[in-house]
Write a structure and sequence with these properties.
about 30% helix, 6-stranded parallel sheet, 7-stranded mixed sheet, Dihydrodipicolinate Reductase, domain 2, alpha/beta
Length: about 300
């Protein structure tokens, strides 16, 4: 049984707790939050000890730590945990950082410490996203002409009342904190961006953009747009992705691209892969932790060395 510590007991920690509980071979052994009340409440719920300083996790026999703190703190927390504890594997919620410089720095420091960083981009485990990736890599769709990606969500005033939300230092805005999974998905599908143009809006009065629209050209020649907002009335509307290719047209939608709305691919029937979701995050975290558990021998080797 591999032991996991959670650093950060906020909103997203609930999803990680569910996923770890559902995964054979993993157990939560410690929780940490600088807010002692939050740490204590989560610890009591799980029946495990808590600390308020992640440095105290050193020497506790832990195999994995999941960093679930505010976005802008991820580089600092990941790097410090790599350097100041003996935990070999560090899971980090998205985004890794809010600047490119910090992203390079965090990987350099983690590698120098001899640890392994596991970014959370759980949408790569989405069965429909994996299917599109396989079709793209196989060449079956031919030339990829265009895509449209829309992330149309709600984050209400109560959400932004949390002190770090809506700040440039810790949040970064809709493109970083909400749409980052889909930015990653576009890179996963199409590779590196060659050029882009974008606009952002902050009509709700935050110090970051709550809505963005961008047009991108990838080095492959594929062009497309991504639109993201947290200003949908009352509740999340949907996420949608449309792909226009030489040999097919596909449209995925749903809160987490969990259903096929349109399928017209040469020589291929529409697959029966629609997914019923019981919450807005999807099941990708489960698949991620299952992968970690199945590769637990790597964790064991890391601890021995």
């Amino acid at each position: 049984m591999k032991k996991v510590a959670l650093v950060g007991c906020g909103r997203i920690s609930k999803r990680h707790i569910e996923a770890i509980r559902d995964t054979d071979g993993l157990e939560i052994a410690y929780v940490c939050d600088k807010n002692a009340e939050m740490a204590k409440a989560t610890a009591e719920e799980l029946g495990v000890p808590y600390v308020t300083d992640y440095r105290e996790l050193n020497g506790k026999g832990l195999d994995i730590v999941s960093v679930l703190t505010p976005s802008g703190l991820h580089p600092r927390h990941v790097s410090n945990i790599a350097e100041l504890t003996d935990i070999p594997y560090i899971v980090c919620e998205k985004p890794i950082s809010l600047t490119l410089r910090e992203a390079f720095e965090v990987y350099r420091r983690v590698e120098k410490a001899g640890k392994t960083l596991l970014p959370v981009f759980q949408n790569r485990y989405n069965p429909l996203v994996r299917l599109i990736k396989e079709l793209l890599d196989s060449g079956r769709l031919g030339k990829i002409h265009q895509f449209i990606c829309n992330v149309l969500w709600n984050r209400n005033d109560e959400y932004f009342a949390i002190d770090w939300h809506g700040t440039p230092e810790f949040d970064g805005g809709v493109l970083y904190t909400q749409a980052s999974h889909y930015v990653d998905m576009l890179h996963y599908f199409f590779g590196e961006v060659e050029s882009y143009k974008g606009l952002g809006s902050d009509l709700r009065g935050f110090d970051v953009y709550d809505s963005i629209s961008a047009v991108l050209r990838f080095k492959s020649g594929t062009i497309g747009s991504i639109n993201a907002t947290v200003d949908v009335y009352q509740t999340n509307f949907l996420t949608e992705f449309t792909l226009i290719a030489q040999n097919g047209t596909i449209r995925l939608s749903g809160t987490n691209l969990n259903q096929i709305d349109f399928w017209n691919v040469e020589g291929m029937e529409k697959p029966d892969l629609n997914i019923k979701l019981d919450h807005q995050y999807g099941k990708g975290h489960n698949t991620m932790y299952e992968y970690i558990a199945k590769n637990s021998s790597i964790c064991s080797q890391a601890r021995r060395t």
